[in-house]
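Re: beginner question about structure tokens

> Can someone show what the tokenized structure looks like for a real chain? I only ever see the sequence side.

Sure, here's an example I had lying around. Input first:
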Amino acid sequence: MNPDYRLELLTSSLDGRIREVTEYQVNIDNFRLAIEAIGDDPELVGFREQLEDLLQSSRLEQRKAQVMLDVIRKQVEL
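And the corresponding structure tokens:
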């Protein structure tokens, strides 16, 4: 395997994973703030539940993306 090409691929992947983790964080912050804004509004109970599901899902997906980011970083640092 060409080491320069491998490093180029890893570096490109690194940038993408950093963006992915950041995008999940933006969504997590937005969902959390929206849930706070809704409070106990009875008319928005269903919407709040949707946001809570999205928040939970985004947190899990961010954790997965963070694992991959960490793995790529370790390989780039070799």
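Each token stands for a local structural state, so reading them left to right follows the chain. Residues 3-38 form the longest helix (36 residues).
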